[in-house]
Design brief:
Elements lengths: L5 E6 L7 H11 L5 E6 L5 H6 L1 H4 L1 E6 L4 H7 L2 E2 L1 H6 L4 E5 L2 E5 L2 H12 L10 E4 L3 H12 L5 E5 L2 H11 L3 E5 L3 H4 L5 E4 L23 E4 L8 H8 L3 E3 L2 H7 L1 H8 L7 H13 L1
Parallel strand pairs: 1-2, 1-3, 4-6, 7-8, 7-10, 8-9, 10-11, 11-12
Antiparallel strand pairs: 3-5, 5-6
The structure holds 2'-monophosphoadenosine-5'-diphosphate.
Length: 279
């Protein structure tokens, strides 16, 4: 067993998580004698697992599907981002208290800050596709940055309506069949559905009605260059891939557990891209 601090990622299933690769890269880069493991935890074992972290030698962890909502309710203290999103993905011990945050919000906005500087720009209308867990983090990030005209559309309209009720008047819901109209005059489009992912159906949308200076961001990162991003480039728009959100959301957790703020570098990115291409 490693002598330094130990953290882990838990999920059910957990085999495909890339988090060990990301944190393993940073541990190696910073010469930290710690460990980041992946552990399969069934839903019925979550409570027991979280209440015995210290005995197991863990200082904190990431939680992924299907534990993000339950982890929020099992934590002793929850930060504002996790509360707003309604889910936690990063936990750590402070004394005997279990603290929880949601770093997807940070990951989303930081990735845009770095890959599309000025994205907040003129507060143009934004279109968001989807209404799942990732969408919640994105809406929180957009509202934090002051966007006032967010057009939300989802195949199952009730899920989008529920988000609009929860996140407030900045959000207008469009029917999924009217998503094309929702793009009119938009300066930013974010796909937070699984459409376009390897093995999923394609996302059918024409970017023509968007502003010429618009940005198109996809949360899908397998494939890294989705058909949506290719269409954006062909139309001369700025295209932002989904991998950066995954990499940046890992930064605050690593800092909490291992005491060093790591960087999202080209080297890290290449390592994850190579792994994605190999799988
Ligand atoms: P996550 O929590 O990772 O965001 P999710 O809750 O399964 O995952 O959300 C997936 C999103 O992709 C949802 O917005 C889903 O639409 P529904 O709410 O109608 O299920 C969307 N999605 C998945 N398959 C789709 C399809 N074939 N057409 C349109 N939207 C789809």
């Amino acid at each position: 067993m490693s002598k330094g601090p130990r953290a882990c990622v838990i999920g059910w299933p957990i085999e495909h998580s890339r988090s060990p690769l990301i944190h393993g890269h940073w541990l190696e880069h910073h010469g930290i004698e710690g460990a980041y493991e992946k552990v399969a935890v069934a839903p019925e074992d979550l409570k027991r697992f979280l209440s015995s972290l210290a005995e197991q030698g863990y200082c904190g962890l990431n939680v992924t599907v299907p534990h993000k909502e339950a982890a929020l309710s099992l934590a002793d203290e929850v930060d504002e981002a996790a509360r707003a999103v309604g889910a936690a993905n990063t936990l750590w011990l402070e004394g005997d208290k279990l603290m929880a945050s949601n770093t997807d919000v940070y990951g989303f906005v930081t990735h845009l800050d770095e890959s599309a500087p000025g994205w907040r720009g003129k507060n143009h209308p934004v279109c968001v596709l989807g209404a799942g867990g990732a969408t919640r983090a994105i809406l929180k990030g957009l509202i934090d940055r002051g966007f006032g005209d967010i057009r939300l559309t989802n195949r199952t309209r009730q899920r989008a309506d529920a988000l609009a009720r929860e996140f407030g008047p900045a959000i207008t819901v469009y029917d999924w069949k009217d998503r094309q109209g929702a793009l009119e005059g938009c300066g930013l489009l974010i796909n937070s559905t699984s459409l376009g992912m390897t093995g999923a159906p394609p996302l059918v949308i024409d970017l023509a009605p968007m502003l010429d200076e618009a940005i198109v961001a996809d949360i899908v990162y397998a494939p890294l260059e989705t058909a949506l991003l290719r269409q954006a480039q062909e139309r001369g728009l700025r295209a932002v891939d989904g991998l950066g959100m995954l990499l940046h959301q890992a930064v605050p957790g690593f800092e909490k557990w291992f005491g060093v703020r790591p960087e999202v570098t080209g080297e890290l990115r290449s390592r994850i891209v190579a792994d994605l291409e190999a799988s």
